[in-house]
Amino acid sequence: SYTAASGACGRRRGSLAWLSGEPELLALLGLLAEAAVPTPALLWVGLKRNASACTHAEHPLRGFTWEAVGGETAPREVPAALGRWVKEPVRSCLIARCAGLHLAATPESSPSWGWKE
């Protein structure tokens, strides 16, 4: 679960990852490929939408934001390239939600990743 993943990182003095741009995403996807992570897979990252925030279909992250941890500043502007969703998130302004990085088991010509609530 998201909570368990976040807790596991915290116990190791770390935090869930967030991405500020496409180069970081490509580096992460490369590391996951090197590690031979079996697909399909859902990896929890620091992508969250608080209960007071609404879903915004026009934004790449649909109203989700990166959790800032340890005084770091999470990126506010998100490149359109990071706006790939496997399935559109539930439209809501009432419930806190989190999203993970979904790695797909697809042919090379298809997208291999997307966000999944």
UniProtKB/TrEMBL annotation:
Name used for this protein in its record: CLC14 protein
Gene Ontology molecular-function annotations: carbohydrate binding; extracellular matrix binding; extracellular matrix protein binding
Membrane topology: Single-pass type I membrane protein
Keyword Membrane belongs to the record: yes
UniProt subcellular location: Membrane
UniProt entry keywords in alphabetical sequence: Lectin, Membrane, Signal, Transmembrane, Transmembrane helix
GO biological process, alphabetically ordered: cell migration
Cellular component GO terms, alphabetical: external side of plasma membrane; extracellular matrix
Domain of life: Eukaryota
InterPro entries: C-type_lectin_domain
